[in-house]
Write a structure and sequence with these properties.
alpha+beta; four-stranded antiparallel sheet; 3 helices; 13 strands; 16% helix; 43% strand; elongated
């Protein structure tokens, strides 16, 4: 009878040890990013603001406009909701730990009315999903939703709608002008 109890206790102890070994968390992962810890999404995400850029550059953890002016950085935990007075078109970039980014272009608000923008970031599969809303006063203007894109060590985002028209093209019909992409990401 005593041997049976010893075998039973040994089996339970071995099972508990195996359970703890195989269910151990290994480092930080994207699934852990949702909490309110120092390594959570809020503490690793920066909001960058650019006023009507034609192109934006990223190189070694720094964002620049075409004239090499650094973008204004705002910690995300101090930026929710963001109050702004958009007198000119503005581009907001969310940068998560220099691994993922999301950019949203906002038009100038009518008559310079102040508004607010809200972001919500959550982990989904192997990336982060951004959901946001833009309000002018109490009116909802834009609602956006999309995945954050992987970042490279050095790349450029070009907003094609802000570039001068191409005069070297053979087909200048309106249909071909609308067929192009709204932005281009070039890895440098």
């Amino acid at each position: 009878m005593r041997t049976t109890w010893i075998i039973l206790l040994f089996t339970v102890a071995t099972g508990a040890a195996l359970y703890l070994i195989f269910n151990r968390r290994s480092g930080n992962s994207l699934a852990d990013a949702g909490g309110h810890t120092p390594d959570s999404i809020q503490h690793r995400t920066w909001l960058l603001v650019a006023s009507d850029p034609t192109s934006l550059y990223y190189h070694d953890s720094a964002w620049f406009t075409a004239d090499s002016t650094p973008l204004t950085r705002i910690p995300l935990d101090s930026a929710l909701p963001i109050t702004h007075n958009r007198q000119s078109p503005t581009t907001y970039i969310l940068d998560y730990d220099h691994r993922y980014f999301y950019d949203v272009e906002l038009p100038a608000s009518p008559a310079g009315k102040p508004g607010s923008i809200q972001f919500h970031i959550r982990p989904v599969n192997d990336t982060l999903q951004v959901t946001g809303s833009l309000y002018t006063g109490n009116t909802l203007d834009i609602r956006f939703n999309g995945p954050m894109l992987n970042m490279y060590r050095s790349f450029m985002v070009t907003y094609n709608s802000k570039l001068p028209p191409d005069t070297s093209g053979v087909d200048s019909t309106e249909k071909s002008a609308l067929a192009g992409a709204s932005k281009t990401i070039t890895v440098l």
